[in-house]
Structure formats: C-alpha cells, structure tokens
Amino acid sequence: MMALSENDTHGLGGERITHLAPNEPDVSHGTILYLEDVTLSFDGFKALNKLNLTLDNGELRCIIGPNGAGKSTLMDVITGRRRPQEGRVFFGQNIDLLKRPEHEIASGMVGRKFQRPTVFEALTIGENIELTLTGSRSPWRMLRARSTALEQARIDDVLTTIGLNQLRHRPAGVLSHGQKQWLEIGMLLAQNPRILLVDEPVAGMTGEEVARTAELLVSLAGSRTVVVVEHDMAFVRKIAKKVTVLHQGSVLAEGSLSAVQANPKVIEVYLGETPCSN
Amino acid sequence: MLLKKLLNHDRGGALVLLAIVLMLIWVSIGNLIIPETSAWHVPTYTVALLGKFLTYALLAVSIDLIWGYAGILSLGHGAFFALGGYGMGMYLMRQIGDRGQYGNPDLPDFMVFLNWHALPWYWQGFEHFWFAALMILLVPGLLAGLFGWLAFRSKVSGVYFAIITQALTYALMLAFFRNEMGFGGNNGLTDFKEILGFSITDNGTRVGLFVASGIALILGYLIARMVVQSRFGRVLVAIRDAEPRARATGYPVAQYKLVVFVISAMLAAVAGALYVPQVGIINPGEFSPLSSIEAVAWVATGGRGSLFGPIIGAFAVNYSKTELTTIAPDLWPFFLGGLFILVTVFLPKGLISLFARFKAKNEPALLPDPLPDAPKVDAQKSKPEASV
C-alpha cells in the first residue's frame, strides 16, 4: 500500500515544485478540487443548480442528501462523464477539468467507484487490478504489453490491502457482493488517483465488512482525497470529519456531522426526521 | 514457440486447427493423386465446396473477434467480406484481357456494353495482383475505420450499432446494384479466366485456392488469438463486461473498439477475396443483410467467444444448408430459424459447450477455494504524497 503512493510520485523529485507534470495539480493553496456555480440541467430540470464545492487536498469528505439531490450528477461532472452548461471545475489551481476528456481525468486524477459494484467479471482478480494499474492506456501499447515484475509487485500490494490475494487467479465473477466492492476499491487504488469518489461503498455489506471498509477508507485519506457518497448514517458517523449536504442541486449545509445534524434547514429537508438519528 | 504460446490453454482451437491441416492434406491428395475411379477420390466439386466453407469460417472468426470479445454485434460484416470479394473480382476481371465476349483488351465486358470508352480511375492498378491484394485490405479497413470512428465516438453500441451495420451493408448493396457504379451492376463480376496465370477452372488451381483458404483461416485464427491473448484483448473483455468501469479506468474505449473492428473487417475482407475465385462470381447479393445475419448465426451456433467454435459453426451450418437445400430448398429458412432458437434456448454457449459438458463428466469439478479473510487494513497511515 505504502509503496503504491510512492511509486507514482517519484521521478520528478524536487523539481515538481516549480515544474508541474502535465496532469499534476497545483495544490499549493491546499485545494484539490474547486467547483464554482456549476449548473447542469436535463430538459429544464436543474440537476445541479449553481453548486459550489471545495475539497482540501487529502481530506475525507462525506456527501449526503435525499434522493435526487444531485449526488450522482455531481460525480458525473467531476469525472467528465457529463458536462455542465455553466460553471467552472478545477483540479488543483491549474487544471480545468471541463476541458479534459473523460479517460484523461480517469487516469491519475479522479477515480470513481460506482454505486453498483462493477468489476470485469470474466477476468481474474489479478487481471482486474493489472488493467487498472497506472500506465499507458494506448491500444498499440496494450497489444505488445508484457507483465513486468514491478507490476506484479504492485498487484500484490493492492490485493493485500483489500485482502483478496488468495483469490488472485479466480475470475472476479465468483466474488461475493462485498468482495466485489473491495475489488473495485482496489482497482481505484491501482489507478492511483488523487481523488477517490466512492459511491455507496457499504451497500449490501455485513456489519463486519462495513467496519473493515470504514477502516480502509479512513486509512486512504491523507495520501489521497476521498469523497464518499453514502446513505448509511452510521457509516458516515464512523468515518466523516466534514459532511456536505446536497439538496436540489446545491449545497445546503457543510460542516461537522453534529453541526449539520443540528442545522434546521437540513432537518426540514429530511421532512422532520433527523438524518442522522441512530 | 509462438504457436505453442498462442494455443496455450486452447485445446479446442488446437484440435480444430489440426483438423483443418488434416483436411487440407486429405483433400489435396484425394483430388490430385488418387485417380477418379477410386472410391477414395475427392471430387473437384467437394474441393470447391470445402474451400468456400473455409472462407466462411474465416468470416465467422472475424465476427467472433468483435462480438465474442468486445461485445460489438455487427450485422453487416458481410459488407467487408463482399468488398474483399469485389477487390479480388476486379483483379480477375482485368486478367480476362481480350478473351471477353467483346474482345476488348482494356475494358471488361460490362463496360463495353455500357458504351464506356475508358477504364474508370478506381479500376486503375487492379491488373496487378499486389495492388489488388493491398486494396482488398485497405478499402474495407478504411471503411471500417471511418464507420467505426463515427459510431464508437458517439458511443453507439448494442442493438443500435447492429442496426446501423445492417443499414451499411444494405446501402452498399443498393449502390453496387447500380450500373453507373462501374462494378457490373446486377450481374456483378464473373467469367473469370485466370488467377496469377493459372486457369481458374483447373483442378490444380482449385486445390491451390482451397489450400490458400485453409492457410488464411489458420493464420487469421492465430492473429485473432494473438489479439485476444494480449493485454489489449483483456481490455476488450473488460469493455464487453463493464464498459463504464473501463472508461472510468481511463481506457479510450472508442479507440479499442475501432482497432479491433478494423482488424476484424480486414480478416473478413481476406475471406471474401478467397471466396470469389472459388465460386467464380461476385455480385451485389453478397451485400444482402440476410447473409450477414446468417454469418452471425454460424458464430452463435458454434459458440461465441471461443474463436474455434465459430469455425465449427460455419462448417456445421453450411454443410446442413448444402444438404438441406438439395433435398428441400424451401425448408432452409425454417431450419435456420429453428436452429437459432434451439441453440439460444438449449445451448447458449453453442455447439462447443457440448464438448465442455462431456469433459466436465470425465473430470472432477473444480471446488471453489475457501473464501479469504476480510481485508486487512494497515494500522499505520499511508504516507502523504510528497507533492508540494
């Protein structure tokens, strides 16, 4: 795990302070992601409405909100899957994400775990990780690519982190729901993105698995920025330092979990029921 | 070495290739060496028929490469097959020279008939075999590249892609039916005399073409195998099974689909080019949407996603077709429809799953491994990245 984050940051050494690599964000002011007045509407319905959001480098942020609040659309915008009609989206201070194609954002910038676990079921677990390791994504290179010892070591690292090393040569299709969730998180780790977007990571997991996943996500923050969208309030309480509440495509409240819970606007949105009563 | 690597974990493929090699040897000897009076003689009719099946099998492999591994269902692959065929047809037309009905040394008969006075620009160069061979690969490849670029760039996939490929082959059929196109219109290209200086009706030439088709099939199979065994091939499978994940992982999905689509179109074109001298004619009927659908049926029957299954499928379906159309030609469409239903319902993985079943009876089933522990999270925190 440790090796993972180091492997991809070496090479430029001290120079990187002055010379940033092409896709290297400038986080000198502590901000990794900056969204300003982002609006995206589908046939007049504003899924995102002048949304503003700032993520600090290395933080772990939870995003909650009722259904239709725009959580998934927000993720689509950050990953470049959908383009907003208005607004600005910056990665660090220097990279305009709205100008980058989806696959470029996905390699090294933002990794996303989908709501339903999506892994490559016909491939083995090791191959799943192998395909997601950082490196060239060009078809021509892939036709000639050979597995290297370095890659195998990194696959080992990731599989150990997510606890699936013993199943390395089995097809991913045989995994349980919870294991697929982990495999998908492992695939994100292999991609080594600066921001991890994790959509409902504990849906369908047992209590034990939920606890492990919480530990895993908390341990990842710091070296990366982790954004968790989750309905499970007990889980949010377990991991979150800062919570953002979305409502009707905008940020309704932001702050510590207890502050957000006490916010009268938040209580109203959840129709009187305290979102975090547990 | 390379062969061994390519056929590693591919016992079915190795067996099918072995069968093809044996068939090539047996048919060649049976036709050329064993005298006609012997019961072991293989008639020239059979040579031509099997040669045709070999080119169909190569078409099936090309379809399986995109459908079985990248999940791209093309119902218009006959178009690339036919284009390859026309490329070869043009070369063969130019070889006729002044032996045509009208005896014009420069113009094929149909052009004389249309009162054309000079060879159109796009016919130039086809008198050279190397040029024709190049065009047979290039033209279908470029068309597939353009078509695929437009379709995959706009994320057209699944049934929508299948429908527009039908439209593509239908449009080409209508275009090639027109006399003004300069490809012989309705009648197509026929009355071929020679290929590479050998008389096309000669027994030796026929066996030569048959063997060439067999070699093309084997090479095509190995190329397809090389593609699917590479990491590129694993990305294709990843795209097939979870395209959003592949995109989110940073793979330029459209480029991958485009590359494999072009490779597949070129394989289909080679098949078409070898098909034409063996059947002696190419006409716009080859572009008919129905032939493309039939080719997909061979793949489904044999077993999608195995590469060798479609070879078996192409032979099995076309052999039945030959037999059945001699006994009861009207029944063929019903047979084909029925076969498609039976395979989909009872053998969704095609004929090759019969072998797998047989194998499963003889070998003990693999027991699932014990499930692993929950993930172990390192207690110490990851080191923050050294950036800035």
Could you please describe the fold and organization of this structure?
The complex is a heterodimer of chains A (278) and B (388). With 278 residues, chain A is an alpha/beta fold. Chain A has a single domain, classed as P-loop containing nucleotide triphosphate hydrolases (Rossmann fold, 3-Layer(aba) Sandwich). Helices cover 34% and strands 23% of the residues of chain A. Chain A contains eleven helices and ten strands. In chain A, a hairpin with a 2-residue loop joins strand 9 and strand 10. Chain A is globular and about 55 Å long. The C terminus of chain B is likely disordered. Chain B has a single domain, classed as ABC transporter involved in vitamin B12 uptake, BtuC (Orthogonal Bundle). Chain B is mainly α and 388 residues long. Helix content of chain B is 65%, strand content 2%. The interface between A and B is large, with 68 and 42 residues.
How far from one another are the termini of chain B? 50 Å
- CATH fold name of chain B: ABC transporter involved in vitamin B12 uptake, BtuC
Order of helices and strands of chain B: HHHHHHHEEEHHHHEHHHH
Radius of gyration of chain A: 19 Å
Report the mean per-residue pLDDT of chain B as an integer: 90
As a percent range, the share of helical residues of chain B equals: 55-70%
Distance from first to last alpha carbon of chain A: 34 Å
Pairing-aware structural class of the strands and helices of chain A?
Answer: alpha/beta
* The CATH topology of chain A: Rossmann fold
Number of distinct helices of chain B: 15
* Class inferred from helices and paired strands of chain B: mainly alpha
Q: Give the beta-strand count of chain A.
A: 10
CATH structural architecture of chain B: Orthogonal Bundle
How confident is the prediction overall: mean pLDDT of chain A?
Answer: 85
Fraction in beta strands of chain B: under 5%
